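DATA SHEET
Item: assembly model
Revision: 1
Owner: S.N.
Input lines:
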Amino acid sequence: MSKRKKEMQPFWRPNFVNQSELPDIKVVRTGFIINFIAVTIALCIAFFLMQREYRSYSLGQTITTMEQQIRVADADDTENLKLSELFRASAQYIVEVENFFSSPLLAHEFLYDLSVIKPEDLIFNSISLDESIVKQSGKDVVIYSINISGDAKNLTVIEGFKKILEEADLLKVVGFELAINESLQGRDEKTGIFPYRLAITLTPAKEAAPKKTQEGDES
Amino acid sequence: MLNPKTKGLFVDISEFSILAARTSGYKIPMVIEELAEYPLGSEDSSEEIREFFEQLVDFKGSAYFVSRTGVYPEGRFVRYYEAESVNKAKDLKFLTEILKSEFNVDPDVNSVSILDARDGCDIELESSLSKHLVFCGAPIDSFKAEQNRLLKCGIYPERLELSTVTTLGGVSDYAHFNEMKSPILCFELTSKSANIFILNQGQVDVARPVPFGLDSIYPLLQRELGLKDEASARKLFFSNTFDFAEMGPKLLRRMTKELQASTGFYEVQTGLTIDSVFISVLPKNLGWVSKTVSDSLGLEIMQPNLEKWLESLKIKLGEGVEVSNLGSRWMGLFSLMGEFHLREEGESE
């Protein structure tokens, strides 16, 4: 007799059987299925956890090995970086040397040739040879500038020297156009000589496209 | 053809006999295929009883056959109680006290069920609206002993019912079915005790125990016939060789006085007249007891028309099954099959 909700019985027929005292008479025992499922689930979970543990252990081992390799390789890497820096510096030096020799004007030869063709009444005070990079038609090109300054006895000597320079093989470089500009200063009244400045420019020649235009103009 | 359907086995075990029925199953509509009786003596072994059941149903090699059983455990009780109000009848603590104080039943050592005295349905304390209650049950150990006894005989009691109250339900349902308007006196007489019930239109109005039973008759019989001891008197009592018709009223005087007291009080109290008496359990050879009681009380013996009643419960009789000659002692067995709530539902519709 309890207040607990129980299974309703047919009218006038309460059931007094003591279920806990009755034997198990199931024809097909299903208890083992529940056990089997429970054990299988437990095994699956255990396997999954063990696999995860093993993977994390393996990853830990790999990380340790890699870190060791990194530590070992670090010293070699520093050595290699030093060598690489040295190589880069050497390479830059080589490039500079190569550029020097690939220049259309070789400084020492140019100076010698210039001294040969120099008229007697002309003095060189300074000669500079520069190369610079400028944009030409959207492209970077190298321009060679030679600046000669000095004194001349008279103007005809300068004119003559300019002509010599224009005709000299010295400044006829294949692929370059020559431009010579002179600038004169007033005659020094005391000495009677003319200070002058010659700006010689070698500019890379423009490509063939303009020729076609000239042909077109002529027609 | 193979018949895969599991057969039903209904068993009513009293101290006098085992009444059993094999049915087509447990769900109604069902067919009673065979009836069998095993008279119980003092020295019946479990093996012999199992053999009896094996002749009735096919165990198919199993140790047990599932059955629905009714028993008469020692110390059983069925008590009627009318509470002052519905609220009181819902109070478990109050009802527990009533059981202890008024009926001397300790709920700690007894299996107790509370039914609605009007229709026999299980009382749901929280939702019940009835103040007319029937307490029924028996000591837990008695039910346990009955259950173990059944298991020993290969009977697996899927249901273990108290035959006293199940039979009462059967009689109540029969009264509904037969539209019996007058109160019915129900009398259950066994060796150590007896129970008196008065049903009015299917509702329990009186339920009281008598603290003595057939055992109280043997000393009297011994004295009357000058027998050497009570055991001899008992043997003669059940032997079916002596005509007790003449001596009966004398032997049952004490019992009939109890019955007269109950019926007289009830009739005075209610103004109703009891017309018939229903006597259950008693074996066939004690038929004179029913006659003596009915004569002494001036009541008709209620002889239920079992076939029609069973038909109304959607229980059919199989080929060769005859119930017209069966006495009222079989009411307990058939009541185990009855789904009485269906009739109640039908009536309410």
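QC remark: The radius of gyration of chain B is 20 Å.
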